[in-house]
């Protein structure tokens, strides 16, 4: 029997840690037929070639992974079109973001980011000892880059630009990003979080790599969780100028990407697999168009999504609507008092959600 009368724990937590908002995970399915559209996951299960790489790697897990993930970094560098020294991998791009912040933020430095945006941002900033400065997202769900540039002070160390913005969906445009970067001092780090890059079809979206080439204070943050369908294995990466990349690498968790994850990611980047995976992304983009067209026909006016989700700014009705969706067998992601995010999933799941959305009109 465990001792239930253990002495009181008086170890103080850091104030920033004690004050952290709890991360609310996407809802998980229980028994019965439930469509999970709550976490922006890829609905396709792994390709056979990726699955066999996973199975093979599973037989080798008594060994440590390659600490610097040399082969994966090489594959990613080739994929992006940069030098390997410009790529840093981590246990999902959320972890990589944490390492980026740890590499540059001193206690009390300001980190500017849009809100509402990715719910991991306030947590990552607080854990790094930074001070969050949030800038409201415009009513149409687009980032207000001029306001974000105006929020930069001489205490600002980092600006986070989420494009497409999670959970609202729109991308920033190349021209407005150029104007923003011209307005921000060159010693302020600008993180372009491109988690949904492969889903973007807007011709006005920026070319992240070209932006990085012109602006060495930019870091690109990318992931294999969404388009590549490896959310459960945790592989994200940063692309940066070499000196910055070395700093990010220096604070990264040792062996932060497991051997199985490295092998799965390498298999996913192989030309044939990549072609198949990007065809799946095309199918999801087509589904996105079908869903947004149907929603427009139902009379919804929603932000223009370039990601694998749709945003419903429902305000105070959000929580009740989410419960109705759950009751109808569709799990969605509510942000209480603000809105609902609904991922694009398999055709049947999207149809089930469209029926729910119709009932809300
Ligand atoms: C999903 C997502 C990520 C990726 O997270 P991983 O840790 O790589 O799974 C990063 N940024 C945003 C905005 C996201 O929505």
TrEMBL record:
UniProt xrefs under InterPro entries: Aminotrans_II_pyridoxalP_BS (IPR001917), Aminotransferase_I/II_large (IPR004839), ArAT (IPR024892), HisP_aminotrans (IPR005861), HistidinolP_aminotransfase (IPR050106), PyrdxlP-dep_Trfase (IPR015424), PyrdxlP-dep_Trfase_major (IPR015421), PyrdxlP-dep_Trfase_small (IPR015422)
UniProt xrefs under Pfam families: Aminotran_1_2 (PF00155)
Catalytic activity field: an aromatic L-alpha-amino acid + 2-oxoglutarate = an aromatic oxo-acid + L-glutamate
EC number in record: 2.6.1.57
Cofactor: pyridoxal 5'-phosphate
Modified sites of kind N6-(pyridoxal phosphate)lysine: 226
Taxonomic superkingdom: Bacteria
GO BP terms: L-histidine biosynthetic process
GO molecular function, one term: pyridoxal phosphate binding
Entry keyword set: Aminotransferase, Pyridoxal phosphate, Transferase
Residue ranges occupied by any Aminotransferase class I/classII large domain in the UniProt entry: 35-346
Keyword set includes Transferase: yes
CDD domains with a match to the protein in the record: AAT_like (cd00609)
NCBIfam families for the chain: hisC, PRK03321.1
Family the entry assigns: Belongs to the class-II pyridoxal-phosphate-dependent aminotransferase family.
Function noted in UniProt: Aminotransferase that catalyzes the conversion of aromatic amino acids and 2-oxoglutarate into corresponding aromatic oxo acids and L-glutamate.
Subunit field text: Homodimer.
Record's protein name: Aromatic amino acid aminotransferase
Organism: Isoptericola variabilis (strain 225)
Lineage: Bacteria, Bacillati, Actinomycetota, Actinomycetes, Micrococcales
């Amino acid at each position: 029997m465990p001792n239930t009368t253990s002495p009181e724990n008086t170890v103080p937590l850091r104030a920033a840690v004690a004050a952290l908002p709890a991360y609310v995970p996407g809802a998980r399915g229980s028994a019965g037929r439930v469509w999970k559209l709550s976490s922006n996951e890829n609905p396709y299960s792994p390709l056979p070639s990726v699955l066999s790489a996973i199975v093979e790697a599973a037989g080798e897990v008594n060994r440590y992974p390659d600490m610097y993930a040399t082969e994966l970094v090489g594959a990613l560098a080739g994929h992006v079109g940069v030098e390997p020294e410009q790529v840093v991998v981590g246990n999902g791009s959320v972890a990589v973001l944490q390492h980026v912040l740890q590499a540059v933020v001193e206690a009390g430095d300001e980190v500017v980011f849009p809100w509402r945006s990715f719910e991991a941002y306030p947590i990552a900033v607080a854990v790094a000892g930074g001070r969050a400065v949030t800038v409201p997202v415009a009513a149409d769900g687009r980032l207000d880059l001029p306001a974000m540039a105006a929020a930069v002070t001489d205490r600002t160390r980092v600006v986070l630009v989420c494009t497409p913005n999670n959970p609202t969906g729109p991308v920033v445009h190349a021209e407005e990003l150029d104007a923003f970067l011209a307005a921000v001092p060159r010693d302020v780090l600008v993180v372009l979080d491109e988690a949904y890059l492969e889903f973007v079809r807007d011709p006005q979206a920026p070319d992240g790599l070209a932006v990085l080439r012109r602006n060495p204070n930019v870091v690109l943050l990318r992931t294999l969780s969404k388009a590549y369908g490896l959310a459960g294995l945790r592989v994200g990466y940063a692309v940066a100028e070499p000196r910055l990349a070395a700093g990010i690498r220096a604070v990264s968790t040792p062996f932060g990407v497991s051997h199985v994850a490295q092998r799965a990611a390498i298999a996913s980047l192989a030309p044939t697999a990549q072609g198949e995976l990007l065809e799946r992304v095309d199918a999801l983009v087509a589904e996105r168009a079908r869903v947004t067209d149907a929603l427009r026909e139902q009379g919804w006016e929603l932000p223009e999504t370039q990601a694998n989700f749709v945003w419903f700014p429902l305000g105070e009705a959000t929580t009740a609507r989410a419960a109705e969706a759950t009751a109808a067998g569709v799990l969605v992601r509510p942000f209480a008092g603000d809105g609902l995010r609904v991922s694009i999933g398999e055709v049947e799941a999207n149809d089930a959600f469209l029926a729910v959305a119709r009932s809300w009109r």
